[in-house]
Design goal:
Elements: H1 5-14, H2 19-46, H3 54-62, H4 64-93, H5 106-124, H6 127-155, H7 158-161, E1 171-172, E2 175-176, H8 180-195, H9 200-203, H10 211-236, H11 242-246, H12 252-261, H13 263-297, H14 315-335, H15 339-367, H16 377-398, H17 400-423, H18 431-453
Helix pairs in contact: 1-8, 1-10, 2-8, 2-10, 2-15, 2-16, 3-4, 3-15, 4-5, 4-13, 4-14, 4-15, 4-17, 5-14, 6-10, 6-12, 6-13, 8-15, 12-13, 13-14, 15-16, 15-17, 17-18
Amino acid sequence: MIGSGIFALPSQMAASAAPGPLLIGWVVTGVGMLMLAFVFQTLAQRKPEVDGGVYGYARAGFGSYIGFSSAWGYWVSAWVGNVAYLVLLFATLGYFVPAFEGGSTLPAVVGASVLLWVVHALVLRGVHSAAVVNTIVTIAKVVPILTFVAIAAVGFRAGLFTADVWGRTTQVDGAGLGSTLEQVRTMMLVTVWVFIGIEGAAVYSQRARSRWDVGRATVLGFAAVLALLLLVNLLSYGLMAQADIAGLEDPSMAALLEHEVGSWGAAFISVGLVVSLLGALLAWVLLCVEILRLPALEHVMPAALARENAHGAPATALWLTNGCVQLLLLWTLVNDSTYTNLVYLATSLILLPYLWSAGYQVLLAARGETYETGHGRTRDLVVGSLALVYACWLVYAGGLDYLLVAALFYLVGTGFFVWARRESHLPVFTPPERVVVGVVGVVSVVAVAMLATGHLAVL
């Protein structure tokens, strides 16, 4: 979960919400994400035979095509997120090498491409080797975050925090922040990005020593990350005026620490972010290949995507993933896609996988499946329902534009599902699935029409 989001959080939140709406949004996010964490914990324990987390739960509850769409959306979200990581990584290196400034210049894209294929080579050597490297990186990237929190706590000025609690007078780029509800809605889409990864242990459930470990990892990881996010976000509002924070370039945490302690602070945070991004990139490349491998084993994705090399790495899935990353990197070169745009697109694509997982817990509890003694059924029904409501809210918060583009990605991916079913000589769609595909097709036509007329643009 700790990748790039926490380092860019101060400016992104300051551009979205004043302290009052911010606190409301964090309460809703904290409760909603906690419910999702409990969902993944509960499902890992009650359905230990279901592998693949967001993919497995969607397939078990709603059929093969919904399972495929969950895996596909998660996969696209993950590799688009990797492009965002690479853009921000080289934008951060621009602090030291001006040619990389912005992250989408020609030198930056060339550097990002080289790094991408270095990571590719590392993962080809095996998932275990890559995981060991990621453990070391995880420890290293927490140190600068804790340093920022300590310094910000000392420098916190309550007067700045309370100057305009509800955002009535604050303006960002000459525009107001909007109503309290609008501020909450806007900031909550950012919060989803910083929590993406909460499902990671569930995705890797097949490799876990115990399904109880999956549940513990999910809840403990959520609690630790939530504490860091709240401290970084809230303390930053007491260091500079909100409008000034909103105008900071990413990584805004570096600029804030520079404001407090001088240039060494920016350099220190920038180095920490580079380490964090390298670890996040590696972790999410691993998640990308895992979320393709499992469906391929169950005839939901083409069988070739489950093929492993001599080191046990799903090589075909890895080549497909990083090939897509490379193409979108080149797109940023000619289209000047920003880190924030990539983040919003990646976030919108992961919302439905979360929704299906929450829906599956509600389905199990409502049916009484795995609740033969009745113990815990009411609790799990309430938790699942709250998570489902939260997931629906997130789809709304994501906005229509990103939902339309997501439909296009789902429609393109449907070809892989048809391929997989036919090569396994299995029926392609059930009657309800044909309805779902039809809806996706209609929404995609609308998206294409809006793109052609210039009424839709997210990159």
